[in-house]
Amino acid sequence: MQSLLQLFSVPLRQRLATLPKHVMQELQEIRVRELRPLEIAWGRSYGFVSRQSGLCEDPAAAYLPTREDCAALLEMLTMHSLYTFEEELRRGYITVTGGHRVGLAGRTVLEHGKVKHLKDITGFNIRIAKEHRGAAVKVLPYLLDQQQEHRAIHHTLVVSPPQQGKTTLIRDLARIVSNGPAIREGSFMHRGYKVGIVDERSEIAACVKGVPRFELGPRTDVLDACPKAEGMMMLIRSMSPEVLIVDEIGRSEDAAAIHEAVHAGIRVIATAHGMDYTDVIKRPVLHEMLAEGVFSRIVVLGNRNGVGTLLGVYDAHGCPVLLKSELLTPAGSVQASWKEERGSPPPPVAIDWTGNHTLLQGQLLSKKQEPLC
Description:
Elements: H1 2-5, H2 10-16, H3 21-25, E1 27-33, E2 39-42, E3 45-49, E4 55-56, H4 67-77, H5 86-91, E5 93-96, E6 100-111, E7 114-127, H6 140-143, E8 156-160, H7 166-179, E9 195-199, E10 220-224, H8 228-238, E11 243-246, H9 252-263, E12 267-273, H10 277-280, H11 284-291, E13 297-302, E14 309-314, H12 333-342, E15 359-360, E16 363-364
Parallel strand pairs: 8-12, 8-13, 9-10, 9-11, 11-12
Antiparallel strand pairs: 1-2, 1-7, 2-3, 3-4, 5-6, 6-7, 13-14, 15-16
Helix pairs in contact: 8-9
Organism: Paenibacillus radicis (ex Xue et al. 2023)
Protein name: Stage III sporulation protein AA
InterPro entries: AAA+_ATPase (IPR003593), P-loop_NTPase (IPR027417), Spore_III_AA (IPR014217), Spore_III_AA_AAA+_ATPase (IPR045735)
């Protein structure tokens, strides 16, 4: 966090330094807008940074970043060379060391009807990247293909609105899948897998000069700052991954590359924006892929109990996926997780990590909660 604060001008840095400790620990966004209130988001809350110190609810009492504050921030983000960041300015964001993504707003310059770059940049959204080891522990058992001898990974699509833990989840999946039984979280896997990550926005791995700054496991290769579709094809041809991980798909060229990977026998884990399964199937490219059965697992995240809450896991037809009880025994992880989240130990027959009390040994106890399929 200290390295991130160094990007700001002294006035901004001084005011951010007065925020309460718990706010800084849960910080998710810093929104800097020229001559408008300095805003932050943490946990499930939003607030303004006071002109004096700490937080305030009244925007009239908030610090208003000056043109000098914004110009200094842009200079630091582009390392004093706007020219070398033309592509990032065209896309509207810059990723800095640590995997933090800075969204940009200003005046667009068009060329032949398409955005060439941004100018007069006066709005910045600094999204804080955080590594949460263990974030994928609850999800991974749903993704293991029990019909295969070695419990390979299902082709998986992770769905959630922005900032609900998609990138954090797939980052931790890469770590566990790459390690396999070498670490406790992968103890029920047969072996570790070669993992390839296409990190177009440098958020998954947070590479600095090609070296990941987040822990991704010993068998993981990263193609940094590369367009997703092209990057997937490059990894397929050159690095022979067994599991391919990519963030925020949705274009037709992404679908074509994923089809190539699937037909090559490579397992794919991808993310997409959406509220839930029904929301995703309204998007033409994703609807076509789901209709073809490309993804056999759809993981839905939200913030019901905090960012990254597992809301459900579904198969290709939108039916809820239930776990077999033998997957829930390693190291007492289910009991410990349940107790931590709910304050009491689970019943001995509870098998659903999402906390559905109606489940018993893979069967519904109440007809009122029948699956929709």
